[in-house]
């Protein structure tokens, strides 16, 4: 019987829907979405698994329940290299089955250390720190036709592999950055189409990357080792089922390439003048010790070129330099076409985010050179682009070419190939531009890990940044796989005393960072937000020991009075009232902030333990959370709700983190927060900790109009000040560029940080009105604030169940509210202008429209 119900987007773990190659989970959880023309509520599902082995088997599993997100794997675990085909169908309460989904295949990678026969090999005598990029190579013979070939490969450094001169994939900077002493990622490539009968050659360039390149602001390199190495295992399956393995060993050779220098911060130097690979001298390789027990498969997508931007304008600067504006601050490199130059001619491309006094504004780059240099091989047209580097920029300066046109240039944007999942728009172009700046900041700073900035000599996985920005990131993009891997690194690098390094991965892993609230809180807050936005309770179970260890560290530092006082703290970092060169000297008292963070984290651990069924842990940390909350109130809050240091941030955190429960204190704190915002002239007066909370605190305290006025402020400090200055991403400082167009003289001045863009989450939830109300958006709250001055606002989010859409529009007749809900989601709707204390309208999936006179 034909059914109007369709199952689609079958996915494994946190990978994108569809086929998955080289998964590292032997029992991958399943997710799917449902489309139905009629009312539908899943009451049962059926999973069909085909295991095409020498004895093909098809097994079917029927499960009662409505779970369609990260449902448990119903069959026996996959073995290394095994691939299976899966499809799903669902049944509603009336007993009608849907159509089967399209089949999706999942293939396991190498799941056990003993699956690896390849060794790590390093070139002898070449490939040193200041030497050309080495290329490792090996010839092999294939007798006849093959049915499949897989290349499993990783490196100390970054690799670019090819077979018979053809790249094995389109990803770059593989295997990316993990906590190398604990976890080294490998990639799996399907190279079946690259293998030919007869003689074949496999090659791989090895770059410095994060392993050996410059890292951190101290401008030091080789944090993990000073020797590059490759580990590659090519497995070829013939038509008769025999498998041939070509693995790195001491029979491989190495040679220099034309890439003379490479570094993530500094850029690339490439000499295109030809060398004959047949006559180029090769050197032996040496097997180096590096255990395969550290090797792990990816949890999310790779880094790839994800788009291009055209050049908008070419002109000469006051000093005569050729400058190019690409119109958008982003991450990647310049692709440049040149012609008509003699062999040996040099072309140089420099990069910067902004201009200053009409020239390239490179001062914020600090020690990073951000320069690519090319030595040409002759007059024929050649396309120039770097390898093993990334730049954060909007503007470029080109020397060595005088006749450039806009058609000769494009900006290749690069990043983790994340699926876009969230959108926002409204009738105010300034706010829409602000939101677009947040989107570009997210794209730019999720380069395998959540970084603070993509351009200067830093680009690190600061824990404080992702701790505040996680909900916004999880709305805008599917960063669930990326964060799953990053949290594994955090747990691996957590100190024995429970403390958390300030950056993850931590290249100076031999040092011990002091515990700092909000930054270390990433251990608890990030997995909790991942659970809330995706419904992944498995991440809580995996991370719970790490989460609890951080709270135990806070508890040890606080002592018997449960007040975390003294010691090192970043505090409300970059409070605009702090001295420019002392961004941690915020108005908010650091002891108040630290104790508030302690109370919040203890509560999160209690709640996470409750979700995972660990009742004893839930009770222990629930008791601790209440003790810390009460200690906070007793020490820092008076009867009228006034809080020590009288800063916007301390009121916001006390209100939003459930620390104030007494109605009189809550009302007083909300009133005082509103007074402070009014007294500031509706300028932002919060730093890293308070900024994500301030608009929610005002709204929930009954002052949404004040939050709206705060968002609409255009004078510095404010969210819209950078927009008025032409920003296309979120700045690190509220005043990274001063009103006269000069760059802030402070040492930390980036024009592409996402942290202060965390306000976008409030925009989604309170302006457009789309807010999660249960983990994974299984239940949502629709309650838009139709602020004066806006004619419409809309939000769309591809949640685990499908697309949710909320839009309201104002007309002379009133306000029209439209809501689209996918199968599996229930919405609680409060109509604009209605009584917020009234019971909401509850609706299920479908398209809904209401009209109000508000």
UniProtKB/TrEMBL annotation:
Domain Alpha-L-rhamnosidase concanavalin-like: 317-408
Reaction(s) the record says it catalyses: Hydrolysis of terminal non-reducing alpha-L-rhamnose residues in alpha-L-rhamnosides
GO biological process: carbohydrate metabolic process
Domain Alpha-L-rhamnosidase C-terminal: 769-838
Pfam families: Bac_rhamnosid, Bac_rhamnosid6H, Bac_rhamnosid_C, Bac_rhamnosid_N, Ig_Rha78A_N
Enzyme Commission designation: 3.2.1.40
UniProt keyword Nucleotide-binding, yes or no: no
InterPro entries: 6-hairpin_glycosidase_sf, 6hp_glycosidase-like_sf, Alpha_rhamnosid, Bac_rhamnosid6H, Bac_rhamnosid_C, Bac_rhamnosid_N, Ig-like_fold, Rhamnosid_concanavalin
Domain of life: Bacteria
Keyword list, A-Z: Hydrolase
PANTHER family, A to Z: ALPHA-RHAMNOSIDASE (EUROFUNG), ALPHA-RHAMNOSIDASE (EUROFUNG)-RELATED
Protein name listed in UniProt: alpha-L-rhamnosidase
Organism: Bifidobacterium simiarum
Lineage of source species: Bacteria, Bacillati, Actinomycetota, Actinomycetes, Bifidobacteriales
């Amino acid at each position: 019987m034909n059914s109007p119900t369709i199952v689609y987007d079958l996915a494994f773990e946190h990978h994108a829907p569809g086929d998955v190659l080289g998964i590292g989970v032997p029992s991958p959880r399943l997710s799917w979405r449902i489309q139905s023309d009629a009312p539908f509520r899943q009451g049962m599902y059926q999973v069909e698994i085909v295991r095409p082995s020498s004895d093909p088997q098809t097994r079917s599993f029927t499960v009662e329940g409505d779970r369609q997100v990260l449902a448990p794997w119903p069959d026996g675990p996959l073995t290394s290299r095994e691939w299976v085909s899966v499809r799903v169908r669902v049944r509603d309460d009336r007993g009608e089955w849907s159509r089967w989904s399209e089949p999706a295949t999942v293939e396991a990678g190498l799941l056990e250390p003993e699956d690896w026969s390849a060794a790590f090999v390093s070139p002898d005598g070449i490939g040193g720190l200041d030497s050309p990029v080495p290329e490792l190579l090996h010839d092999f013979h294939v007798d006849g036709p093959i049915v499949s070939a897989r290349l499993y490969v990783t490196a100390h450094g970054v690799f670019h592999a090819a077979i018979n001169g053809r790249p094995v994939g389109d990803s770059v900077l593989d295997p990316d950055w993990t906590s190398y002493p604990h976890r080294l990622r490998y990639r799996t490539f399907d190279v079946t189409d690259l293998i030919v009968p007869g003689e074949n050659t496999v090659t791989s360039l090895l770059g410095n990357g994060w392993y050996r390149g410059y890292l951190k602001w101290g401008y030091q390199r080789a944090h993990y080792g000073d020797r590059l190495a490759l580990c590659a295992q090519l497995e070829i399956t013939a038509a008769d089922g025999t498998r041939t393995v070509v693995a790195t060993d001491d029979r491989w050779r190495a040679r220099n390439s034309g890439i003379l220098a490479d570094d993530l911060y500094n850029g690339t130097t490439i000499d295109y003048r030809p060398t004959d690979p047949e006559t180029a001298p090769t050197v032996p390789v040496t097997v180096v010790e590096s255990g395969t027990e550290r090797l792990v498969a990816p949890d999310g997508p790779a880094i790839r070129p994800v788009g291009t931007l055209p050049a908008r304008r070419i002109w000469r600067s006051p000093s005569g330099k050729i400058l190019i504006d690409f119109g958008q601050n982003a991450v990647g490199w310049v692709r440049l076409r040149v012609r008509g130059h003699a062999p040996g001619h040099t072309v140089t491309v420099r990069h910067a985010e902004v201009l200053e006094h009409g020239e390239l504004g490179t001062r914020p780059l600090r020690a990073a050179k951000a320069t690519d240099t090319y030595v040409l091989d002759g007059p024929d047209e050649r396309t120039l682009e770097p390898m093993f580097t990334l730049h954060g920029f909007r503007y470029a300066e080109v020397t060595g070419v005088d006749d450039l046109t806009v058609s000769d240039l494009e900006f290749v944007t690069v990043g983790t190939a994340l699926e876009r999942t969230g959108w926002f728009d409204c009738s105010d172009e300034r706010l829409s531009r602000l939101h677009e700046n947040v989107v570009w900041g997210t794209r730019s700073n999720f380069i395998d890990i959540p970084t603070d900035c993509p351009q200067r000599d830093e680009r690190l996985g600061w824990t404080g940044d992702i701790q505040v920005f996680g909900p916004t990131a999880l709305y805008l993009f599917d960063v669930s796989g990326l964060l799953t891997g990053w949290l594994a690194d955090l747990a691996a690098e957590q100190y024995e005393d429970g403390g958390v390094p300030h950056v993850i991965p931590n290249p100076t892993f031999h040092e011990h960072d002091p515990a700092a609230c909000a930054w270390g809180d990433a251990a608890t807050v990030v997995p909790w937000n991942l659970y809330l936005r995706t419904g992944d309770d498995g991440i809580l179970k995996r991370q719970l020991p790490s989460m609890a260890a951080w709270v135990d560290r806070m508890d040890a530092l606080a002592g018997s009075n449960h007040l975390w006082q003294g010691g090192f703290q970043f505090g409300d970092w970059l409070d605009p009232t702090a001295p420019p060169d002392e961004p941690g000297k915020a108005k908010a008292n650091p002891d108040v902030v630290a104790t508030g963070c302690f109370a919040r984290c203890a509560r999160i651990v209690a709640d996470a333990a409750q979700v995972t069924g660990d009742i004893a842990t839930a009770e222990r940390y629930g008791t601790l959370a209440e003790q810390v909350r009460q200690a906070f109130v007793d020490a820092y809050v008076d009867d009228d709700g006034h809080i020590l240091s009288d800063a916007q941030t301390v009121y916001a955190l006390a209100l939003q983190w459930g620390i104030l429960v007494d109605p009189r204190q809550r009302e007083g704190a909300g009133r005082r927060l509103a007074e402070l915002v009014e007294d500031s002239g509706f300028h932002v007066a919060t730093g890293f900790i308070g900024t994500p909370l301030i608009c929610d605190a005002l709204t929930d305290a009954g002052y949404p109009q004040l939050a709206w006025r705060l968002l609409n402020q255009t004078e510095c400090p404010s969210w819209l000040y950078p927009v008025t200055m032409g920003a296309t991403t979120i700045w690190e400082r509220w005043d990274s560029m001063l009103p006269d167009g000069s760059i802030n003289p402070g040492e930390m001045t980036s024009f592409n940080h996402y942290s202060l863009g965390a306000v976008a989450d409030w925009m989604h939830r309170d302006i457009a009105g789309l807010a999660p109300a249960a983990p994974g958006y299984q239940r949502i709250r629709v309650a838009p604030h139709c602020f004066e001055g806006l004619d419409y606002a809309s939000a769309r989010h591809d949640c685990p169940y499908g697309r949710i859409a909320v839009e309201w529009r104002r007309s002379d007749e009133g306000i029209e509210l439209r809501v689209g809900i996918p199968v599996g989601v229930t919405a609680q709707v409060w109509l604009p202008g209605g009584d917020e204390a009234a019971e909401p309208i509850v609706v299920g999936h479908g398209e809904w429209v209401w009209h109000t006179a508000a």
